[in-house]
Amino acid sequence: MPLIRQPYLKDPLIKNLPGININNSTISSLVRKSVYLQTMSEKPAINFNLKKELLESFLIFLIGIPWGYLMCLTCENKIYSIIISGTFWVTLWKGNQFLSAVLDLKVSWVKTPLLRAFIGIIGHSLITFVLVTVIFEVTALFGITISNYKTTVLIAIGITLVMTLILYARQFLLAWRQAAIDSERMQKEIMTAKFETLKNQVNPHFLFNSLNTLTNLVFENQNTAAKFIKKLSEVYRYVLEVKDKELVKLKEEMNFVRSYVFLQQIRHEDALFINENLLGLEESSNIMIPPLTLQLLTENAIKHNVLSSESPLTIDIYIKDERIIVENNLQIKNTINENNTGVGIENIKSRYKYLSSDAIEITKDQNTFSVSLPLIKK
């Protein structure tokens, strides 16, 4: 089943409509409705395969043969009891199976389990009564007598109970499994939609600032301007390449971060310093990271702190205890709420919650702010 994409979140006509605010709550609501509507349109249908049904009926009939002997141990001609027993097994098994399939289309195990169980018990009891009555009437019509009536009825009830338990267990497990799949798909879609929205929020500001910087460079230093254009193209090429990926190699992410940092250092000059020490882990092909994670943390530090030649911002990216640490010195802007960690970090939290059993760790004191990311190995 393909993932549900969110065209309404990407459509500029919708995003730019006055009065429409695409926030995390709106995204979650839209995604849940989309998943719900698709799930409702994909209700299971009753599939009939004649060859399969005949084979199953034959096997069920064979299972019923031993019960034919128990029904009439003193009978001289046991062929009638065998036929009747096999017919009981096939009709009750297949009849209850069909009833269960019909009920699954009408009543959900996940949404209303008690109602589904109650209706199922009533339905299976009725169909058992009807089928037993019909079989007895047919045998009487052909002059076949059943000497042990009570035993036959008890066997029929036993068959129904066994069949009901098997069907209920199977259907409940299938419904529970589908609910888990739908829930995971919903979480993934929410995460994807948030990621798309985040990129739409960040990219215009970054592009605007970069173009302003480039305008000045073209007149001041054409060689640096050419390199700036190259790095800018690398940044946007990477964003396009990873837009549908959950994970990328650490090396690819670091190359992207270096291009991004180059652009920022041209703009801020000696007010920004980046130190990295990944102990060679970026060369490992099995170390993965959610795309744009390190860039978002770097951008978050630049956005929330004062940058000046007298008090430069220093960002350190290093490995410690099997985790990637992104750390910066704190010099918060006066216009920034100190309790606000940024949209980017919230996005990273939600992605790591989905992709890893280990959560990210955020540490903040008077002098530093750091984010610890668990290593993801594939």
UniProtKB/TrEMBL annotation:
Q: Which InterPro entries does the annotation name?
A: Bact_2-comp_sensor_kinase (IPR050640), Sig_transdc_His_kin_internal (IPR010559)
**Mind listing the GO molecular function terms for this protein?**
phosphorelay sensor kinase activity
UniProt domain Signal transduction histidine kinase internal region: residue ranges: 193-271
Name the source's superkingdom: Bacteria
The residues that cross the membrane are 54-71, 77-93, 114-136, 148-169
Q: Name one GO cellular component term.
A: membrane
Which keywords accompany this UniProt record?
Kinase, Membrane, Transferase, Transmembrane, Transmembrane helix
Presence of keyword Ion transport? no
Do you know which PANTHER family this protein is assigned to? SENSOR HISTIDINE KINASE YPDA (PTHR34220:SF7)
- Protein's name in the database: Histidine kinase
Species name for this entry?
Mangrovivirga cuniculi
Taxonomic lineage per UniProt? Answer: Bacteria, Pseudomonadati, Bacteroidota, Cytophagia, Cytophagales
